[in-house]
Design goal:
alpha/beta; 6-stranded parallel β-sheet; about 400 residues; Rossmann fold; about 25% strand; single chain; 15 helices
Length: about 400
């Protein structure tokens, strides 16, 4: 993440809302990731939180009045607008949204908005009735038509005790939008299909066959693909992970459910990354009632599940897509991965040694080897988030070569 944010000048516009105190945490987080954060506070915002708070957290000067008393920066709105990599208005009050929608230029924040050509993110925060009012909704539509990124607020209990839409979006979601804005976008306009997690094959209502996959690698890939500009669909087996912001998640349980969903969604996708750990077999017989311990057989008859990755590799439009597979091996790592690469007709395969500490199922790190028809690339032992970024760099290289 620091690679994306480091050195980027982010202008924060803080307006009059009780949610202003939440944004202090946002500024602190960005500063820790080495972003350069300049804060502009409206007069109303300074009634809720002191400028000194943002100065301490950002390590930067906080701007307020259009014309400072010392006149050391008489063109602050131009200087800030030109320096900005991104402008974030959070919380954005109904008043500020109305002023921006009508092109007002009567304070430092509004003039900076008009003067910048950087992306602008607007995060509304207000009473539910104010947010849902026709005037506010029409103003938000205007901002979107201007090309501003307006983030839908969360719903819940307000400080005023109303319950509904209007709460400032949570930082995890805002962070992803910021990272997408500041990231390179090799996948802009592309649809990427990613599978993640395990599958479960029922024996009876209480028991199933599964594996150790947590889904963390697939979810990290989905998050990184969204940041890279893609329209991402994530087909996920059972997991406790939250869906990454901006990603369409389709939840499945069995291998057959994953097969039918992937085959349907693959028609639209130009890039498919198959990182799910799909069960190779399922019980031949599924009991509708829980089998009592005394009646359980000591052997279980199995039948093969469909090989999703193999069938994707055989599709008629295969050459129009990029297909990436995953392999979890414990011996003869590269040999087994190359066999799978060839048999399943993949662009490349990501393989990890599940016996190596800190790699494979359930952990937050990974050590992946990328193998294609010609090369072998050993990625460093690092976080799954960074591993996902490196894998997608390889996908972007293939995409670039295909489109030449």
């Amino acid at each position: 993440m620091a690679k994306i944010l480091a050195g980027k000048r982010i202008i924060f516009g803080v307006t009059g809302s009780i949610a202003a105190f939440k944004v202090a945490g946002w500024v602190s987080h960005l500063a820790k990731e080495e972003a350069l954060v300049s804060v502009i506070m409206t007069e109303s915002a300074q009634r809720f939180i002191a400028p000194l708070t943002f100065a301490a957290l950002s390590g930067e000067k906080v701007y307020g009045a259009m014309f400072a008393d010392d006149m050391s920066e008489p063109m602050a709105h131009i200087d800030l607008a030109q320096a900005a990599s991104l402008l974030v208005i959070a919380p954005a009050s109904a008043q500020t949204i109305a002023r921006l929608a009508h092109g007002m230029a009567d304070d430092l924040l509004s003039t900076t908005v008009l003067a910048t050509r950087a992306p602008i993110i607007v995060c509304p925060a207000m009473n539910s009735k104010m947010y849902l009012h026709q005037a506010t909704q029409e103003n938000i539509t205007k901002l979107r038509n201007f090309g501003y990124i307006v983030v839908d607020p969360d719903s819940g209990m307000m400080a005023c005790k109303d319950d509904g839409p209007g709460r400032l979006v949570e930082w995890d979601s805002a962070q992803e939008i910021i990272l997408r804005c500041l990231s390179d976008k090799p996948f802009l306009g592309k649809k990427i299909l990613i599978t993640a997690g395990p599958t479960r094959e029922a024996i009876d209502p209480a028991r199933f066959l599964s594996n150790r996959s947590s889904g963390k690698m697939g979810y990290a890939l989905a998050r990184a693909a969204y940041r890279g500009g893609a329209d991402v669909t994530l087909v996920s087996g059972p997991t406790t992970l939250e869906c990454p912001y901006g990603v369409e998640r389709i939840e499945v349980e069995t291998a057959e459910e994953m097969y039918s969903t992937v085959m349907e969604k693959s028609r639209e996708a130009s890039i498919i990354i198959k990182s799910a750990a799909v069960s190779d077999f399922r019980p031949t017989e599924i009991h509708t009632q829980k089998v009592k311990k005394d009646n359980i057989k000591t052997s279980l008859e199995l039948q093969a599940n469909p090989d999703i990755l193999f069938e994707l590799g055989q599709q008629a439009d295969r050459n129009d897509k990029i297909l990436v597979g995953f392999a979890a091996e414990s011996a003869n790592i590269e040999k087994e991965a190359r066999k799978k690469l060839t048999r399943k007709n993949l662009d490349f395969i990501a393989v990890n040694n599940i016996k190596e500490e800190g790699s494979g199922f359930g952990v937050d790190t990974n050590k992946i080897t990328l193998i294609d028809a010609e090369d072998t690339i050993h990625l460093p032992h690092t976080s799954k988030e960074e591993t996902a970024r490196l894998i997608l760099e390889s996908v972007a290289t293939i995409l670039k070569n295909k489109t030449r």
